[in-house]
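Q: My labmate handed me this sequence with no annotations at all. I'd like to see what the chain might look like in three dimensions before we decide whether it's worth expressing. Could you predict it?
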Amino acid sequence: MEAEAITRLTDGLQPPAIRAILVQCLVGELAPSAAITRMLAVEGASTVRAAIDDVTHRAATISRASDMLVHDRVDELTQIFVEKVSELADVGDDTKSRSGYGLGPASRPSKSGDRDEPRVSE
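A: Here is what I predict for the chain of 122 residues:
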């Protein structure tokens, strides 16, 4: 029953490497966080997001009552992906700020002269 649900959710998903990792995750062989890390190592974030969005949409529209375990795994995968991408964006923004490319608080000069604001020494 579970294998049938996973096949329905991942059938035709591209690229094949992402599909294989998603299948491992949905079967329960691979934790969602590890699956996301592996998928991001194989493809870019936009491709991984598209695959996860596709599986999430399929789970919402074609899953059956007997698919609840797989559906829960899809939900967990989606939640962890959103958190991980948010963390990656935060790290990227923080790196840009420290390198002078971003306009984060650490790289902007203080207009108020407030001594409590962090300063970047060069």
